Structures are given as C-alpha cells and as structure tokens.
Backbone:
C-alpha cells in the first residue's frame, strides 16, 4: 500500500482500528477503513472539496458518506474521546492554547456606509 505524507502511520492506525465500526455479516463489502480515513484526513487537512480528493483514497462519495455517517452515529466523538484519554495517560496532551486576536477591518465602501455622506 502506498503511504503518502500525512497518512496514518502503522502505530497511529493500531490505536484507531479497534475503535472503528465492524462490518456487518450481511450486505456489501466496505472499502478499507484505513484508505477511507486517510482520504477524510486529507480533505480535512487541506480544506479541499471532496471531489478533489486523490484517487488513491477511493471514491470521494464513499469517503463523504462514511464521514457523515460516522458524525451522525457518534463514531468520531468516540474516537476523539479515546485518543485524548490515551494521550492523557501518557502525559502527551498539553492543554495550554493561544488564540489569535487579529482584527481585519472592512473598507468603508464594503461596510454599508452611506453613499455621499
């Protein structure tokens, strides 16, 4: 399997794989979770539209459907909670954060100023 920069490593996948839904005995075959999760991560990391996802991750419709399905059923929330819990056990989380307070002002012509006033 081709592993692109930014794809999940084997160690990262070993943590996530047991937390993902298991395929039901009936119905069609799911595309490999690792391939699809890497595609979802690519879209979220780059901010690109789903349709621009590289072909190596499979069909963009598959990734989008799985992303929305797992968001609705709480899979992503469970993954996040488990990963944070594991990181806290290893003292791998630093909860200090900073926010950028940059202010960007709109030009007066775009801000709704009265014309000619």
Residues:
């Amino acid at each position: 399997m081709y592993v692109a920069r930014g794809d999940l490593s084997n160690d990262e996948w070993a943590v996530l794989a047991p937390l993902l839904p298991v395929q039901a005995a009936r119905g069609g075959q799911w595309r490999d979770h690792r391939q699809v999760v890497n595609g979802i991560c690519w879209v979220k990391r780059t901010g690109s539209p789903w349709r621009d996802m590289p072909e190596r991750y499979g069909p963009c419709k598959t990734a989008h459907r799985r992303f929305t399905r797992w968001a609705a059923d709480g899979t992503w929330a469970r993954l996040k909670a488990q990963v944070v819990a594991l990181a806290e056990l290893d003292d791998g989380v630093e909860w200090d954060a900073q926010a950028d307070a940059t202010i960007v002002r709109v030009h007066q012509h775009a801000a709704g100023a009265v014309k000619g006033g």
